[in-house]
Recover the amino acids of this structure.
C-alpha cells in the first residue's frame, strides 16, 4: 500500500511539473475531433495541426479562422500559468538559538559528585617527563 501511495505521489508531482492537468486528459477527445476536422477540411497532417494550434502558425491560423475560435478554446494544453515565488531573507545579528536559557537554576544542589578516577600507574618514577 505504501508503494502505491509513493508512486501516486511521484506521478502527481511529475505531471504538475510538466504542467499537465487532469482537465487536459479529459479534453483529449476534443483534440482528436478537431484534428479530424482539420484533416478533412484542410488536408493537414498531425504535425501541421500541432503547429497551427500550438506552434509557429498559431497566430495566423487564429486570425484567418475566427469561426473556429470556440473550438480552439476547448482544446487541451491551453494554460496561461504564471509562477511567482516570494523569497524572503531575514538578516538579524541576534542568534536564533541562544545558549543561555531564561529558566532560573536552583542554587541548592541535592547531589554530590566525587571524582572516582585514579591513575593506573600512580606516582611511580617511571612516569613520562612533565616538562621537556
Amino acid at each position: 500500500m505504501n508503494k502505491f501511495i509513493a508512486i501516486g505521489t511521484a506521478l502527481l508531482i511529475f505531471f504538475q511539473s510538466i504542467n499537465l492537468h487532469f482537465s487536459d486528459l479529459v479534453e483529449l477527445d476534443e483534440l482528436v475531433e478537431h484534428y479530424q476536422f482539420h484533416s478533412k477540411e484542410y488536408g493537414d497532417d498531425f504535425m501541421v495541426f500541432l503547429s497551427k494550434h500550438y506552434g509557429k502558425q498559431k497566430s495566423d491560423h487564429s486570425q484567418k479562422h475566427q469561426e473556429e475560435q470556440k473550438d480552439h478554446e476547448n482544446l487541451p494544453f491551453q494554460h496561461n500559468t504564471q509562477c511567482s515565488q516570494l523569497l524572503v531573507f531575514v538578516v538579524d545579528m541576534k542568534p536564533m538559538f541562544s545558549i543561555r536559557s531564561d529558566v532560573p537554576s536552583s542554587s541548592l544542589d541535592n547531589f554530590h559528585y566525587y571524582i572516582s578516577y585514579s591513575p593506573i600507574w600512580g606516582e611511580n618514577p617511571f612516569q613520562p617527563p612533565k616538562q621537556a
Q: What stands out?
A: Residues 2-17 form the longest helix (16 residues). Residues 21-78 form one domain. The mean pLDDT is 77.
